[in-house]
Amino acid sequence: MKKLFTVIRQGKLDEVKRLIEKKPELVHCVSGPLPKKDHGQSPLQVALKTGKYEIADYLIEHGADVNFMEADDDDPGLRAPVLFDAISAAIISLCYKRFDESETAFEYIDKMVEKGADVNKCASNGFDAMQWAVNQAELLFERPTVYPQSQEAVRKQLAKILDLLIEHGADYAAWARRGRYAQPYPGLSNKSMYLDDFVPGEGMDIDKKKEMRAFMQEYFRSRNLHVE
């Protein structure tokens, strides 16, 4: 089992094929406690988060669970659906101006959703796929001088991801009601943070969410999406 995760990280597709052909059930195995960064994860998760997309494709086509999420065990780390790894790859690659990689990662979001990935499944911190995408993109939105060449790309990619999720049943109203931050301290709702107009208050006269708020307001308006 450990051998499979090693060759995935090394990008050795032929070795992955050899191992899976010999023992097909390995596509459903989970990583042991070491290395800690892979603890409890599936081969598909590791392939996606390391950018080994050919291997990810092979695993999906050979029955990898597109709804896999790490088990709730003694490890206190964040647990998230495998779909979130593809979302992260599509957004975070833009931090490094890897625009082609971002498009490739988006194709795997699409592929997994088409194969039945649950677009409303939440991570252990309470984030759904919409919130995960917004949260990842906000890193770039809030730092236009750090990522100037990725500003247009991240807006287009986030819109594509949200479109795909909503078209496949993502509950945008539930997203709006959820708190902006991770449980157990979710804070103000996403609606308050991103859809309502900013109202300056005591000690809060700077709109730190200005760019993302403007984007989300226009996104909901242009798609004719309404929340109470």
UniProtKB/TrEMBL annotation:
<dbReference type="InterPro" id="IPR052801">
    <property type="entry name" value="Ankyrin-EF-hand"/>
</dbReference>
<protein>
    <recommendedName>
        <fullName>Ankyrin repeat domain-containing protein</fullName>
    </recommendedName>
</protein>
<feature type="repeat" description="ANK">
    <location>
        <begin position="39"/>
        <end position="71"/>
    </location>
</feature>
<dbReference type="InterPro" id="IPR002110">
    <property type="entry name" value="Ankyrin_rpt"/>
</dbReference>
<dbReference type="InterPro" id="IPR036770">
    <property type="entry name" value="Ankyrin_rpt-contain_sf"/>
</dbReference>
<keyword id="KW-0040">ANK repeat</keyword>
<dbReference type="Pfam" id="PF12796">
    <property type="entry name" value="Ank_2"/>
</dbReference>
